[in-house]
Amino acid sequence: MANGRGRAYARRILCGTAAAVVLTTGCSRDTSSPPHAIPPSDAGLVVSVAPDHGDHTTVFAGEALGFTPNGNVTVSAKQPDGADYPKTYPKTADQSGKFTWSWQWESGEPDGLWTIKFLDQGSGKTSSTTITITEAGSGPASAVTPTVHVSPSTGGHTTVFAGTASGFTPNGKVTVSATMPGGAAYKRTYPKTTDQSGKFSWSWQWESGEPDGRWVIKFLDHSSGKTTSTTITITGNRSQTTTGTGPTVKPAVRVSPSVGGHATLFAGTASGFTPNGKVTVSATMPGGAAYPTTYPKTANRSGEFTWSWRWDPGEPDGRWTIKFLDHNSGKTTSTTITITITSQAAKPAVSVSPASGGHSTLFAGTASGFTPNGKVTVSATMPGGAAYPTTYPKTANPSGGFTWSWRWDPGEPDGRWTIKFLDHNSGKTTSTTITIAADS
Predict the structure, then answer these.
(1) Are 250 and 332 in contact (CB under 8 A)?
(2) Which end of the chain is more exposed for a tag (fewer CB within 10 A), N or C?
(3) Burial per residue of 84-105, b for 16 or more beta-carbon CB atoms within 10 angstroms, e otherwise
């Protein structure tokens, strides 16, 4: 789906952190009412909060000072009925003994006078403050008048329906849901959070397999319980083409070169596809069998994209058909490439210098005549005829060349070593020898 539709968040989110109490430095504070300071229970500790009275949507933002510098603090609470709140929250004072904190009501919690307590772990001193929480309907939420707009209201499978929303609870939670054409509820809902003005933006976009027709997009303001909705009408892009309201889909592809070898990169372009639409690339191999893998592509806003193909070891030579399916329109197009073996061009040769040396010698070699851009495996036969236990991959450059080196490792035998080189594409091999003797 389009942006604006995603996972649900934790119930209580303040200053970007999800928790029942968010105790963070750097949270903005509501200065619309003066801080409510309570004389500390122990000399030196002071906490304040603003506002000290609010409803279910209010963020009670506070400050604390006089605590042990860089010390640990435990925040707890007593509920309006005198019961201890079931959770406590850790805070750490800064080097001046200060920190900020905040509180917000959670669904199911009681209204009334709450006491927020602060225990300085280093000194054992405590302080507290109070906040009063009243039912949302008696506060700012009573003024909530949700309104949404969307543009355009009618479009096709590639249309992004972009919307705005206002009049919701400031900093409140909203759930976006939908009713599909036919009346069934859409399978997912999406969370949104309003800004401090009660506004947010949203969007919707058709997904493959969803029905065309009139959709109802619904918005629930959690704090007030109020709802609003709007409608969008989605039609297939093929019907747009016939009415002249959308692009005409005429898929076309090109490739260069159309004939090449195992190392050739067949580079292609595509145009005339559904703008921003999904495309599946598939292939039919020489002999008519379907290639076992398909590849997704997405056209740009002009209905264009690039693509490429390259032979993999074990695949057949011959004429390949590369097919392209435009998902939104159902239209297809194709092109062909012919792959031929390139072994006749491969004439592997290697050299090394020096050819003899000691345990500290670096035997530096060059290679040429291999398949351009092809894969090569380097192996060795040790003195005595046993195969060396490790092989090494190399890749030739566009001219079929590469460099290589060898050096004795402790425990390896002295004597005459044979270094072998296998060109994967052609199957051809070559080798050279080096002689290793202990340093004198």
Answers:
(1) no
(2) C
(3) ebeeebebebeeebebbbbbbb
Judgement on whether residues 76 and 29 belong to the same structural domain of the protein: yes
Helix (H) or strand (E) holding 313: none
pLDDT tens string 137-175? 444 445 788 999 998 888 888 888 989 999 998 888 899
Q: Could you tell me which of 107, 158, 119 has the C-alpha nearest to residue 277?
A: 158
- Say what percent of the chain tops pLDDT 90: 47
Cα distances from 173 to residues 18, 125, 186, 371, 402, in angstroms, run 13, 37, 20, 62, 61
Q: Which domain holds residue 348?
A: 344-436
- What CA–CA distance (Å, rounded) separates 160 from 162? 6
Give the separation between CA 64 and CA 37, rounded to whole angstroms.
10
8 Å CB contact between 140 and 156: no
| In-domain check, residue 7 | no
CA distance readout (Å), 30 to 54, 87, 135, 292? 11, 25, 19, 61
Please tell me the distance from the alpha carbon of residue 205 to that of residue 197, in angstroms, as a whole number: 26
How would you classify the pairing of strands 332-339 and 318-326?
A: antiparallel
The pTM (predicted TM-score) of the whole model is 0.31
- With 70 as the cut, is the pLDDT of residue 247 above it? no
Would you state the structure tokens that stand for residue 310, as one six-digit string?
A: 């390259």
Radius of gyration in angstroms for the set of CA atoms belonging to the chain, rounded to a whole number: 36
